[in-house]
Structure formats: structure tokens, C-alpha cells
């Protein structure tokens, strides 16, 4: 939950777009009124990657992930593992929840950008089960009714929020062993998946609702069907290339009766349309061969039709409910049919909370045991026990912005709820609820670690504020600053002084260890342009001096007491259209000379001043015209600087990482070997190793960019948005967009390998394994060695000393560990050898 510390911040949050909404649960009428006027989503992630063409590169993620797998496969051994830092109690956006029949302890949870998590103990612990796939954005999950280990997954989030949405899905996947392994089942080009339905009497027949890509109209939208278990697919219905399938329902005993909700959704760099004539509810009564538009009692006017949800009663399949948003995003109405869709009755929707952006929420769910009990899973959750005639609020403590609901087989009274803030459970139909605080799926923008105390970790998150831990624990993170969170900073000389940012540059300062914050923008005019992720940084030589970027660079010498502009407008000026550019996005002050300052902008400019801002020089004329994600003054060369870019080459001979040794007069492309993938950050350690955070993880170079390798194997292909080195402990911390935070030990050269790599190998047999494995080292290194076993998240689950003896072999008992993916490490001669292990 978010707590707003000042009236100024509260007002600021009210005026922000959907993705910036506060998540404290006490929703006032003033807040709702303000939210109604702020329906335009922010496209920050898309803007970074699509500037200036307005397009994303098809298959970029897939090609880059394939490169990563290939590079990792070349090595007989790996070094350190990423250690999970947390949080698990903050949560993040959930897109689907599924529970197997007759198993109330097993849940599958799909995340917006974090993959799929599985629990077998009702949420006490979760483990990721989709990490080997290229795309971790989940649209829908479906479980077989006859075999609970058979899962179908559709990738690509269908919510049209913007801020977190960049990449569409890459099709359909199937697992026959509860998620331990997966097989691609096609449809890689259909964008995001709104729904998967399994035929009730023939599980080789599957229906898929394709919502299509977010940022273009597309012929691949519509309803798809397979009759051979996904070997082949047929598009059985498409209404138009601007309307996709956002939701579907199937008769629980007659698989010929299928319903599809089409949503007209168009998004470009110039406009956004979230409804219209092509939205509507369709029905097929012959297994998808023919379809008819249901209009009897339903909206028919174009402006009345936006996002639609539909659900069918399992106890009486003649009863279905639909929730319509209108084309402007307001609640249009709730409808009920008692004859399978021949006619519909308007129910009461006047009591539903209307916040004006209902294209973001899931909609209606029907109690599986009672056709008259329904839930409107919306901004809040509201419940009706009389078929939609009256409504009451439930799940009163839950985070706002609802996307998923599931009923356990303990009875319909036990409900799971998924929203922008994570997973909630209720044992009494929503009358009371609690948060399940074990999911590491937070989407982070920025990370910072207190220089004086590495137990104190601060991060800025999408939808979940600026949060921190003061113990380095994974489950005790708390909110200190509201709104969407961005760059936090802690004074390196005073742990009580904290700076925090929310969206569009709202800056607060605390002098009491985060107990309270005051506004800290004195001297920065409102007419300046701010980036969604406004940058702020310390002068490395003086913690009282900070820099803050709008379209100009501002400086304070009194710890944000007042600010003064030290530059003119360093951008190309304001832009027009749905997407706006023209702001500073990155600032770097040389740690060797405080008068040398570099600035990067979101419209492709890089600037330098060598006299503390008296004179500025644009040094980007020979650099790519793409969104600058990071400028980094070299920590060893006073004349050196690095620059990274988002976006794609599109066939041009341009890089993503550049280096200069003469203040930007000349540039070297040092990204040879890096796949064509957006780079989000760059950092350099004391061993002269460069690290870049990319959309598929961290890539490192020990030779100043001549060669690059993916760093460690246990981090999935998740975007790494920010990196921070804690210099005292020599740990690299990374913030991911969907999988919370990790760290890795840099105290040893983690890229160092023996010239004879065969001597440093570790063989694990069998793999996959059941109860026992044999470990064989490639070199005699003594009789006893420490082994560590980490789970798929990098959490340490076992550490013990094994006797390898003269044979260099040892046996490890795995019988006490549950099925899943692990990483087994052996320390040898100051190095660490790591192998991936699958436990059956």
C-alpha cells in the first residue's frame, strides 16, 4: 500500500496518468474525480525502444535470448549465481491465476513481465516455472480438468496500460509435467493472448483468443482453433484487423458453444482508440465454424462499446454475464443472459466505482457454485449476490487495479485475487482478505543501496511506490514515498537523508530516515519538461551538491534547499503527438573532476561541460539518433565517457554502446557481439569489467567492449532497468522489470576462467535427477569442498562440505528437496563453478 506524505505529492499523483495512480486503499471521491480526467497511459518503455521510428523490431527479444542461450552453452562451467535480494512482499501486476481441480494448495500465477510462479503449499512458497522461455509476459493460463499437470499458456499481456508494455507475446506453450518443462505450440505472431479454452470433452481441441499486438493493427487478431493438440491451428474467426479477442467463455459440457469478446483497440504514436464499432460479443454454436453477433439487449452504438468481459456460470451454463466499458473508458453497463445469449438484460451498474479507465481492468467473474453471485474485478472489487441488482465492496484492503480472480476447490468462499499489487486471498467470499507476500514479481525502475549500510536497499517501482528494506531481508520491504517510484538516493555521509522521486520528477527529501518527506523542488519551474523517469544524482565529491534534469540541468549546493539552472535547453524541444520527448534522462559527473558533467536526452542528444556548466558542447553528431539510456563518466580516465542507447539498428551499422577517451570528440562503437537489443544501463567495477543491463539480463565485458558474455545463468530473460555497485561490499545490485532485485559478488573477477577450462569443469549426473546425484570435478583440488544449492530464484537452500577424495567424485542426496530447477555451485581454488540441475 502507498502512503502519500505531502499534499503536493497527493495532488501530483492525482494529476498523473493511469500507470501512476496511487495504491493506498482509502479511495476518496476527489481522487476518483481526478482519475477520471487522466485516461492517457504513459508509454515510457515503448518510447525508449521505439524512438525515433515509432516501431519495435520483430523477433528482437527472441533472437537475443537465443544468443544468450548459445553463449552460455559454450561454457563447461559458470561462475557466481545471482542472489535474490527481494522483495517478495511488495508484489506486482498479476495477469492470471489458475487452480487445478481438486487441489486447493496448488496455484499458478501469471505475471505481467515476470513469467509464471507455482506454489504447492497455498502460497507459503512460490517458484518460477517459465524461466527458460524467451517471453515472460503472460496473457492467460489454462489447466486441464482431467490432468492437473497439463498446462496451456498464452504469452503477451493483454492489458493496454502502456508503461510496462513493450513486447508482445510469442505464442502458445504447453507443459505436461506441471510446468517443469515446456513445448512451444505455435501462434508466435498473434501478439498478446486474451484467453485459452480447452474443449470439455476433447482436450485436443483448444480455442485461443488473440488480442494482437498493442501498437499496431494486425491481421493476426481473432479466434484460433486446433483439433490436434496444437500441432496445427486455424483462424476460425476474425472481425477486423483493429479488434482482437480480449475474453472468451465456453460451455462447461457442450464444447460447440463458444463466446468471444472482441475489443477495438488501436494504438499508435499519434493516437489511442480504446473502443468503437468493432467491439462486440460473438457466439458460435458449432465449435467455431460460424459466428453471430449478439445484440438483443446489448449495446450497439459505437461509442458505447469498449473493453468487454464475459463469464459463464458453471452451475447453470445458460446464465452468462458481460461487463462493458464504453469507448471513452467509463463503465457502460453490466448485462445478464438466462438463455445462453439469445437475449440480455441490463443489470444495475450505477453502484460500481467508475474511475474512467476501465480498459485496464478484467471485469466479471461468476461464482462457480451460484449463478447469482458475481464479482466485478475492476478498479476495486465489488460483489453482487442477486445477479447484479445490488453491489457491495469486498477485498477492502486490496491494492487497486484488478486483473485476475480464481476460486479454489475448498469451495467458492475461498477466492484468490490478482492486481497491480500482487496476490490476495479470502476465505469468506471477500468479506476479509490478506495479501500473500511471497511473490518476487515487482517491476522496478531504479535501485540504490546506502553507502554506509548495505542492509538498507531502496528501489523505485511501477505501481508500488518507492520501497526499502533496512535489514536486507526479502519480506520486510515498506513504502516510504508514494506514486510510481523512480530514482532514490541516500546521502553517503548521512544515512538519515533520503531523496525519492515519483513519476514526472516529483522530488521529496527526508532528513529523518524516511519517516516523513518534504517537497524539494525550490527553484525548478513548472513550465520545464520532465521525463517520466526524471534523473537525479550526487556530485561524487560532495553529497550536498546534486544535479536534477528537466529539459535543462539544475544544480543545488545546499542539499536541495534551492536549485539553479546551469544549462540551456539541452533537447530538441517539445514534440507533438501521443508520445512526447524533449527531456534529460541521464546525468553523470566525473568522479575525477566535478566540473566535467555529461547529460543524455530522450531525443538522442549527448552533451558535456568541462567547466561546471558555463559552456556546453553537443557531442552526439556521430552517435545514433536514439533514446540515450545512460551516460557514464569513466571512473579511471578523466577524459573518458560511455553512452548506451535503447532501440534497434534496423539494418544500420550502429551500436548500442559507445566509448570516448577525449570528452566525446571521437567515439568507438564497443557493442560488437551484443545482439540487437535495447541497452538500459552501463556500469564499471574496480576490476575494469563493464556491465550492461539489457532486456534479456546482464551482459559483461572484461576487455572494454571487445567481447561480451552473458553474466551468470540463473537470471531469466527479464529486462534489467538499473544497476548499482555497492563499493564497500563489492556487490552489483540490479533492478529488474518484473522479477524484483538480485545481486552478485564482484569481489573476485567473475569473468576469470582457467586457460584449461576442462580442469574447471563440474559434471552432474544424472541430470535431470531424482534422489541422488554424483558430482565429478575435472581437477583434483583436495578432499573436501563446499557445495551450495540455490533454487531458481538464487535463494540459498543448502550448503555443506562434501568429500570428493582422490576420485574427484562425491554424492549428494536431493530427496528432501521439491521438484524444480536448482543451481549447484562448488568452490574451487578461489573460483566458483556452477551447474544447472533439474530435480524430478
Automatic annotation (TrEMBL):
Highest taxon, organism lineage: Bacteria
Taxonomic lineage of the native organism: Bacteria, Pseudomonadati, Bacteroidota, Flavobacteriia, Flavobacteriales
Transmembrane segments: none
Keywords: Signal
InterPro entries: Secre_tail, WD40/YVTN_repeat-like_dom_sf, Xyloglucanase_GH74
Keyword Signal listed: yes
Span of domain Secretion system C-terminal sorting: 765-838
Protein's name according to its UniProt entry: Secretion system C-terminal sorting domain-containing protein
One biological process term in Gene Ontology: xyloglucan metabolic process
